[in-house]
Structure formats: C-alpha cells, structure tokens
Automatic annotation (TrEMBL):
Gene3D superfamilies: Aldolase class I, Putative flavin oxidoreducatase, domain 2. This is Unannotated protein. Its cofactor is FMN. CDD domains: DUS_like_FMN. It catalyses: a 5,6-dihydrouridine in tRNA + NADP(+) = a uridine in tRNA + NADPH + H(+); a 5,6-dihydrouridine in tRNA + NAD(+) = a uridine in tRNA + NADH + H(+). Residues 25-325 form the DUS-like FMN-binding domain.
C-alpha cells in the first residue's frame, strides 16, 4: 500500500468547520494576504489563514488591520489569525470580528520566535506564563461564541523550558477547536529539524480536539510521513509553499489516496507568478506599483532550481508594472521542463539557533510579576507567525 492510499480520506473537523482534506496554510506575515490565499486555493482544498493581525491594532481599527481582515467573496471559510498579549484586548478583537461577521475561524498565535517579540514576552515566550496563556485563550473562546478558536504554538522557549504539553492541555480545557504545534523551540528559530516526535507526544496527551503538525513539510510526501510518524490529525504548511502554491494540489491528492503530483515546467511557473501579481493588484485596489513591489520578494522562491538567468531574475526583482512582468517573463524559455530535485526542499528563512531574547527575569517564574504585566502591551507588534 502506498503512503498516499494509507492516509486516504482523512477529513478534518475544526469545530463546525469540515475540511475535506486536513491541510492548513500557515499564517505568514507579508505573505498570506488575500492574493496568495486565493492563488493557493485555486490548486487545492484546505483552510487558508490570514496574515497575523495584532489584536490592539484591530481594536483601534487601524487602516492596515482593517485591510488585512478582508476576504474575497470566493474565500470560504474565512480564517483570521490574531496576535495579542493582553486578555482583554484579545477578547475585544475577537468580539469585533464575530459581531461584524468578518470570519468563520480565529487562530491565536503563540509561535512567533522573532526577538523583538519574545524580548517583550510575546509569541513563543508567552505560554511560559501559564495563567496569562490560559486567560487569553479562555477569553478568546468565550468572546467567539460559535466561531471556532484554535491555537498555534511552539515546543517552548528552549529545550530546558518546554511549554507545549502543559499549554496544549490548558488550551484543550479552555475549549479550543484544535491545536497546532510547530515542532521547534523559539531558540531554534527556523533552523535544524522539526521534532515530529513532539507532535506525536502532544497528540497522545490531547483527547478531545484535533492536533495538527507544522515544521519541515516541503512536499506532500513529507506531510504523509509526518502523519504516519506522529498520528497527528492534519498538517500546517508554511515555508514549503513559498513560490510553490501547487503544493496544495499535491497535498489534496495525497490525502485523497491519489498519486498525482504537479511538476510544472517553466511556462507554468511563469503563469503562476503572473497570476499572483494580478491578484496582488486586485488586493491593493488596482495599485500596480504596490503590487509589483510586493511580488518582487517571491521571485527567488518561484524560480528556485529553474534555468532562469541572473539578468532576468534581477529584472523581475525590480518590476513596477504588469507590462514589465509580461516583458521579462517573455524572455524565458517556456518549454523548459520541471527540473526535478533542484526545486524541492527547504526554502525561506532558516536562521541559526540563538538564545531567545526575553524580558528581564522572565524565566524566574511561570507567573507574571507586576512589572512584567505593565510592560506586556509593548509586545504587540506586527511580525511573522512562527
């Protein structure tokens, strides 16, 4: 029996949401806007989550946050990830989303390893403070009503300060609809290998809600291998889809027990790149220049491993109009086939292991001191999801 057929027909229920395939697009700051979500959705089924949105900014109705929570009419279900460190602010943000009927699912971010976040007690540092974590999750679930709330977290701060098992049980007790674990610590950042055994350990300790695995899924084969090794209920795909939105077609096929694998030639990759740019123009309300500035960061990801010369790559990385994109893509040899292993494997930022930046005396206790409580609001900054 093939790996694909061994995991065929594994639907995923997240509260009232029924996903035909157990696949979630991980929130990534500056990446998973409406344009990219729509592009990925065109290839395969799943739950496609927004960029991380700061709760305080949403409560204050900042223009950026109000733009980021918008979904295209084709996006169903509508999924939003929130980041926050204050239980009251997070609850207010959730209540606003629910009252205004702006989403069908809310994910809470406890995985960000970025130093400017963790050094103020946010992201992957926050679950160390047990009561604060529980208060935020309980408040969000209470404010959400019938809208399912989920959490995404890391293993912990470092190997000496792991939080995922205790936080997982607390989240389950608070009434979340699923728990996703990026199987790295904050200290690992994105380096090394994800600890899929930790996903299995979390799965074994959680009895009432699905557990999803995240980390080192670069292909559908990786997703199937993670499920087999950890017995997790679904997968969360982040950096593995950068420049490869068709990975969601591969994932859909694999979880349905099919053998189909998309292996696009250079012409198909060029078409996907152009489609992405067009959707970005729509997302930025017709502003081609803004859209083209945004698509530039995707050039290296889309054309990784393909025979595209440095001159053309450099041109694509400086485009400022759709016409320029057409002109530069026209210089490619569209007949070039899928190059194989050169386009596979890790992509996106890797980083190196580092000592996590934390607030003063953060590890002394798993409860907040008064000084730490008053300074936590500074952690609410826009950054990547973890």
């Amino acid at each position: 029996m093939s790996q694909a057929s061994a995991t065929a027909q594994r639907p995923l229920s997240i509260g009232p949401l029924e996903l035909t395939v157990p696949v979630v697009l991980a929130p990534m700051a500056g990446i998973t806007n409406t344009a990219f979500r729509r592009l990925c959705r065109e290839y395969g089924a799943g739950l496609y989550v927004s960029e991380m949105i700061t709760s305080r900014a949403l409560v204050e109705r900042t223009p950026t946050s109000m733009r980021l929570i918008k979904h295209h009419e084709s996006e169903t279900p509508r999924s939003i990830q929130l980041y926050g460190v204050d239980p009251k602010t997070v609850s207010e943000a959730v209540k606003f989303l629910v009252d205004e009927d702006l989403c069908d699912h809310i994910d809470l971010n406890f995985g960000c390893p970025v130093p400017k976040v963790t050094k103020k007690g946010g992201g992957a540092a926050l679950p160390w403070k047990k009561s604060l974590f529980r208060q935020i999750v309980e408040g969000a679930v209470g404010a959400a009503g019938d809208i399912p709330v989920t959490v995404k977290m890391r293993k912990g701060i470092d190997e000496d300060h792991l939080t995922y098992k205790e936080a997982g049980k607390a989240a389950e007790g608070a009434g979340v609809a699923s728990i996703a674990l990026h199987a790295r610590t904050a200290a690992q950042f994105y380096s090394g290998h994800a600890d899929w055994d930790a996903i299995g350990e979390l799965k074994s300790s959680i009895s009432s809600v699905p557990v999803l695995g995240n980390g080192d899924i670069w292909s559908a084969e990786d997703a199937i291998a993670m499920v087999k090794q950890s017995d997790c209920d679904g997968v969360v795909v982040g950096r593995g889809c950068l420049g490869r939105p068709w990975i969601f077609a591969d994932l859909q096929s694999a979880f349905r027990g099919e053998e189909l694998k998309v292996q696009p030639g250079l012409g198909a990759v060029a078409d996907a790149f152009k489609r992405h740019a067009e959707l970005l123009v729509e997302f930025f309300d017709g502003d081609e220049n803004h859209a083209c500035r945004d698509i530039r960061k995707h050039v290296a990801w889309y054309f990784k491993g393909y025979p595209v010369g440095g001159e053309v790559r450099a041109k694509l990385a400086t485009v400022d109009s759709l016409q320029q994109i057409d002109d530069f893509l026209g210089e490619l040899d569209r007949s070039q086939p899928y190059p194989g292993e050169g386009v596979e494997g890790p992509r996106g930022r890797q980083g190196t292991p580092k000592r996590p930046a934390l607030p003063d005396r953060w590890l002394d206790s798993q409860e907040l001191s008064e000084d730490q409580r008053t300074s936590l609001h500074l952690a609410e900054v826009d950054s990547s999801g973890g």
